[in-house]
Design brief:
Blueprint: H1 8-72, H2 75-88, H3 109-114, H4 123-147, H5 156-171, H6 175-184
Keywords: Membrane, Transmembrane, Transmembrane helix
Transmembrane segments: 20-44
């Protein structure tokens, strides 16, 4: 048996004719699989980027709309007038309260819709958006508590002044920079 070529020269050619195409097909399948994986990952990255940009654009539009709407509708002047009248004693807070003056104390629609996905914006923007909405909601909550009578009459003047300060510093004051940063996403 020594020195006997069992396969023979013709057999080697037949094995090569089978193994080489199989190896080529395997390498091709591996390259195709890797290309599909890379394409899928790239597509997911683009989709995530687009979603992040959409969320940022929606929040920027809502924040800008809230601030502009409050100014244009006279909400700020209305509450400044109430604060002045209460401080001067021309209005008795136990008998008259300013009311919500058309404001809605619920969470704004866009914020409510994108809240589960706001983490896509990155930690700094998430923090700043959260702080902005917390300040805005805090002011609305206070005004609602004044309106429904859960705030004591003697607390009303100072609470309105405090809410106006929060509005100017934390809501209206932070809005331009926050909107600018959201639009850069």
């Amino acid at each position: 048996m020594l020195g006997i070529n069992v396969v023979g020269d013709a057999g080697v050619d037949q094995v090569r004719d089978v193994v080489v195409p199989l190896a080529a097909a395997g390498v091709g399948a591996l390259i195709g699989g890797l290309a599909t994986l890379v394409g899928t990952l790239f597509s997911m990255r683009v989709k995530r980027r687009d979603e992040r940009r959409s969320i940022a654009a929606m929040l920027a539009a809502e924040i800008e709309s809230v601030v502009r709407g409050a100014i244009n509708r006279g909400h700020i002047e209305y509450y400044e007038g109430w604060a002045k009248a209460l401080e001067e004693g021309t209005v008795d807070p136990s008998k008259h309260r300013p009311g919500l003056f058309g404001l809605n104390a619920d969470m704004p629609d866009i914020a409510k819709a994108v809240l589960p996905r706001v983490g896509l914006l990155g930690s700094e923007l998430v923090r700043d958006v959260t702080v902005w909405y917390a300040a805005y909601r805090g002011v609305l909550h206070d005004l609602k508590s004044i309106d429904d009578g859960t705030t004591s009459p003697e607390r009303v003047p100072s609470l309105i002044r405090e809410d106006l300060r929060i509005w100017y510093e934390d809501v209206e004051g932070r809005a331009p920079d926050l909107v600018r940063r959201l639009r850069k996403v």
